[in-house]
Design goal:
alpha/beta
Length: 420
């Protein structure tokens, strides 16, 4: 079991890597002229490989008592533990940015029950800047606890790593909601096959949740399933947590005004500008927007091979030390390609779910400005907002919202289902 000190170190990495990813992904997706349906439509003979399993590896086996202790130690809700669980890393086939076959990985956690039909919970994770810092590696109880929590309550927990993370090849295209959606859908398909081999079947209705970056990924998956991406699945309920839904109107202005955590703002600013430049060609040279010596380091810092602790040590303590005058002006007065990207970023909430939808938000979130959620609520027809209050986890309100929001989502999912 991880020590308190080890867990504190790992959790602190996430305090600086959580929110801009989701919105940037939506903007990049729209800027490329694509939408989730382009990689998440109904399967045809040409893409029958999608969701087929390459390999599976057992990574954990917990009795109900051990699952309770595991969640307690991680600081997650253990109040609904009913079953022991077995967790597996799955490598499966999906589509890449070019819509061609590639591989991705994820974690599936199965309750120890004789029940034939089980309902899936899809949980999409928040941003990580390090390739192996994902649930399927079973190396960090913060990453894995949502899966243990949902499965021990009677659901099949499905946690995709996304492209380029975990055991997937290449660099994670974290700017691309379409491939986050397709990777999540194909992980569901792989999980359906996997549990069938163990004498279970997945119910048609999928319960969909996700945190931070994963909040937008969850909305992308829900939208795709509602639009008929796979006739064997439907949306049972949607429960995103602490998403960055309104980058243009809320998140970026809050970041520029210094209303969010200074170090986290440096991470997100560097991540946003580096990633958006790859897609939108925002500047000719990194030195146009980043101060020395950071200009020459940003690509490496955000290529998935730099551990979180190293990233934190590499980056400065505030935006003033990171950005040139032109870089700051670009954020204060967006124009051209950046303005286009920002406008397109808001699209993640612009649809009308037919399934019950709750948006979970904490007050005074230091990374995902809390006003993002009411902004999403105003355009996501039929959604409700759930105020989580002021949860804390290792000193972070944002990380605390994942712990508290996941617990509240689980309670709601149990009310909607007969899992227990």
């Amino acid at each position: 079991m991880p020590s308190h000190t080890a867990r504190h170190s790992r959790t602190q990495r996430r305090v600086t890597a959580g929110i801009l990813t989701a919105v940037a992904a939506t903007a990049a997706l729209a800027g490329c002229g694509s939408d989730p349906s382009e990689t998440s439509g109904p399967q045809t003979k040409s893409d029958e490989f999608r969701g087929t399993i390459v390999s599976s590896t057992k990574v954990a086996d917990l009795s109900a008592a051990k699952a309770t202790a595991y969640l307690d130690d991680a600081g997650f809700d253990a109040g609904h533990v009913t079953y022991g669980v077995t967790a597996y890393r799955i490598v499966y086939r999906t589509v890449g940015l070019d819509a061609k076959e590639t591989r991705a990985s994820g974690l599936v956690v199965v309750p120890k029950t004789d029940r034939r039909e089980l309902q899936a919970v899809s949980y999409t994770h928040g941003t990580t800047t390090f390739k192996r810092d994902v649930a399927s590696e079973w190396s960090d109880d913060y990453n894995t606890s949502p899966g243990v929590m949902y499965a021990s309550a009677g659901f099949v927990a499905v946690l995709p790593d996304y492209l380029g993370l975990g055991r997937g090849p290449g660099v994670h295209p974290w700017m691309h909601v379409a491939t986050e959606t397709s990777a999540s859908l194909d992980m569901l398909r792989a999980s359906r096959t996997f549990v069938a081999e163990r004498q279970h079947r997945l119910a048609k209705d999928v319960l969909i949740t996700g945190f931070s970056q994963g909040a937008s990924s969850a909305l992308g998956l829900a939208h795709a399933l509602q639009d008929g991406a796979d006739p064997d699945f439907a949306v049972g309920a949607i429960a995103p947590i602490s998403g960055g839904y309104d980058f243009a109107g809320v998140e970026l202005p809050a970041l520029v005004r210094g209303e969010l955590d200074p170090k986290a703002s440096v991470v997100y600013t560097g991540l946003m500008l580096t990633s958006w430049d790859r897609t939108f060609d925002l500047f000719d040279d990194p030195q146009d927007v980043f101060m020395r010596p950071y200009a020459t380091k940003m690509a490496k810092v955000f290529d998935g091979t730099t551990p979180g602790e190293t990233m934190m040590k590499t980056l400065p303590g505030g935006i003033a030390e990171l950005l040139t005058d032109d870089g700051r002006k670009l954020l204060e007065h967006p124009s051209g390609r950046l303005l286009t990207a920002l406008k397109q970023a808001d699209a993640v909430c612009h649809w009308s779910p037919t399934a019950p939808t709750r948006l979970y938000v904490a007050q005074d979130d230091e990374q995902a400005a809390s006003a993002n959620t009411p902004s999403c609520h105003s355009s996501l027809a039929g959604s409700d907002v759930v105020d989580l209050g002021t949860p804390e986890h290792f000193g972070s309100r944002h990380i605390g919202s994942n712990v508290a929001g996941s617990a509240r989502a689980l309670g709601w999912f149990l009310e909607l289902s007969d899992a227990a």
